[in-house]
Amino acid sequence: MSEALAMDQAWGLTHMFSAMVGRGAPEAMSMGHQASTLLRGSVLPRHHCRTIAVAGGKGGVGKSTVAVNLGMALSMAGRDVILLDADLGMANVDVLLGLTPSRHIGHLLDGNCTLEDLLLTAAHGLRVIPAGSGARRLAQLDNGEHAAIIRAFDELAQPPQYLLVDTAAGLSDNVSMLAAAADDVVLVVCDEPASLTDAYALTKVLSRDFGVRRFRMVANMTQNEGEARQLHRKLSRVSDRFLDVVIDFAGWIPHDERLRQAIRRQSAVVDVWPSSRSALAFKKLASVVDTWAEPERAGRDRIAFFGGRATPATGC
Ligand SMILES: Nc1ncnc2c1ncn2[C@@H]1O[C@H](COP(=O)(O)OP(=O)(O)OP(=O)(O)O)[C@@H](O)[C@H]1O
Ligand SMILES: [Mg+2]
Hints:
Blueprint: H1 3-23, H2 28-40, E1 50-55, H3 63-76, E2 81-86, H4 93-96, H5 105-109, H6 115-118, E3 120-121, E4 127-129, H7 136-139, H8 143-152, E5 162-167, H9 173-180, E6 184-189, H10 193-210, E7 214-222, H11 225-242, E8 246-254, H12 257-264, H13 269-272, H14 277-289
Parallel strand pairs: 1-5, 1-6, 2-4, 2-5, 6-7, 7-8
Antiparallel strand pairs: 3-4
Helix pairs in contact: 1-2, 3-14, 8-9, 9-10, 10-11
The protein binds adenosine-5'-triphosphate and magnesium ion (MG).
């Protein structure tokens, strides 16, 4: 089978799978599995490697929720995804996914293990790098240590197709360095004045101090698309006026009680309630992310994930 034909068949199966899951068809799972298997194989171009930081400034807006569910939705579509919990010292991702890590980023920084040793596997093959909880030292890393975390990814034998970085709240060096090291910064914003002002503040720091010019916004916990786009207009109006940046509207996730129930079960909603409103929105967001153009990396002078890989053949 030619590579192009295999790709077409895999995508066809995946999209049919999404539509069937939406209608609750029983055979959807096995077809989805076939699609995943096809896509996980060697048919995908190896050069596809994108790093997405999920940020927002404000606490509790849904950054970890978006990172976990977007990551799993991409995994369910057959993508090879690693999710880095960068809320260092206040780990959330392992709790959200019911994982029990025995090691964390601190062990990597102390030279006691490699990045590969830290990888845990969640449902649908989503791989997770845990942040470590309750370790004060991790919340007070210096910039050299942040750089060491970013550079550790250069050593991965096989870079993933997507690296998602769940960042902490606030504007600390931890957040800004890790977000600036990604190809894309997704701002998670909800309909609260402080969420808009904090997202604006983060945009300002990343553009002024790191030269980040392009952002994507996901509205979370909104009632409908109109409300989500209204939030995007509010943020863009201020950033257009005062900053030299572009903020694209990437999508929206509805407020959904199913999502809260999934969190209580320590599972991703896309996994346990794949046809709920929020799960469908995450799957749509994942398919949008998959259409984003190749990231522009030329001329960047900041430290970046996969920026130091010796093998240009991977394109990362
Ligand atoms: N779309 C949604 N529908 C319903 N509840 C939601 C939604 N998104 C997030 N929540 C609720 O908001 C809570 C906070 O979400 P989350 O932990 O993802 O925020 P965060 O921005 O990562 O917070 P922090 O800054 O503390 O890391 C979740 O525990 C969940 O109860
Ligand atoms: Mg979080």
